[in-house]
Amino acid sequence: MKRINSISSNPSILGGTPVVAGTRIPLARIFYLLSQGYTTKNIQKEYPQLSIKTIKEVIAIVAREAEKGNFLDH
Known about the structure:
Blueprint: E1 2-4, E2 7-9, E3 19-20, H1 27-35, H2 40-46, H3 52-67
Antiparallel strand pairs: 1-2, 2-3
């Protein structure tokens, strides 16, 4: 199992898809909702088990990793 703060990946949870740690909510779902115009507050209403702080942390972590190019195939 891999874990970075609020993000985890475990082969036994959704086949290893990255999720918000401690949940089965895929990161892709958070970003899909953002792309549809949802605010962090709207996302928190959809998933009340997530705090706005956690949602913002997940977004920030993914943004930092993207800046490093960690999502690109080499």
